[in-house]
Input
Amino acid sequence: MNKKRRIRYLLFLIFTMIVSSCTLFPTSNEVESLVSESPSSEIYSSEDESMEDPTSEAVSEPELSSSEISSSEESSISVELELARGTYTNPVYNNDFPDPSGVYDPIQRMWFLYATHGQYLRSTDGVTWTKLSYVFSHLPQWGTPGAGLWAPDVQYINGQYVLYYSLSTWGDPNPGIGYATAPKPQGPWTDHGKLFLSQEIGVNNSIDANAFVDPNTNRVYLVWGSMRGNYMVELKRDGLSFRVGSVEQAAPTKVRVAGLDTSTGWEVDTYEGAYIRYWNGYYYLFLSTGTCCDGLSSTYKVVVGRATTPFGPYYDHENRLMTNKAAGKLVVQKNDTFVGTGHNSVIDDVNGEPWFYYHAYHVDNAHRRILLMEKILFDEKGWPYVQGLQPSTTEQTGPYYHRVVQ
Output
């Protein structure tokens, strides 16, 4: 009997231990429940806005409309999209917006355009534009006293957006190029100051910069200059400094790709507003020539040359070197409605088709350079142009864009 009692007592102890263990150590489901209810997952969220590093140079991002919020949020979840096209009639933005340059952001499915003074626009279809704000809350001060921000150029380079801008006054003896970076096209922009001044790089009138990322090599180039020679240097892969090091080291490596030598005086038949694109084996160099800013007397137009390497040499359709004046194949010029047509950029739509954005004066208003756009066409020899070689004045079909299927 004593032996049997001892066995029962041992079994009782074992049973008690089993019950206790179930109480002390919760099941895996209970563990998940406890973790999800823990306040620490909310307190230490990686998305805590207080952890962001704001910049004093940035303008607060304007509030998005409900439709734009929907578009931005839907890019991170599975949605059904369809190709759509709108229509437009020039001008597409009937306010002063000179020297336009822009990008398409596939994450937000939006176009962004930037212009002199640092103003910028946003569009969901590439034709209907809304003014947002300015890239900087106050102008950089590293240039000539009283210099304005001219001709910004924005490109997506190595995982971030880089904005190149000119600081200059009319007749400035030493203008220069600066740069800023941002995670999104609408900022916030962090200004990094000057990249170079005219006298440092050895190019008179150093304005109108354009960065070009070669799709064949991912190497980054910068082209710039205004009526005193157009030059190019190579940058590092992030687009934030010279490939060879300092500006003193970069100066002797620059290559003149268009216009006369910088020692030559200002020549209206040379070029500014350079913009480079690559298509089908050629590097195309768009350039504006003539007078930009004389109201209805402006003679601005856009021409193009091409080369088989980024540094050239660039030739036009008549085999004339672009390092001469009065060269280049015509892309667009004035008509009876718009004059002073120039300083272009190119943005591809979601179907890969290129669109040409530029400014002009309307003949009824000589006081503002307004925003126009055209589809880029190619002739049988591969040269780009716009229909009729002049601005369109009737309703046109716009770029392809992605629309959410309702």
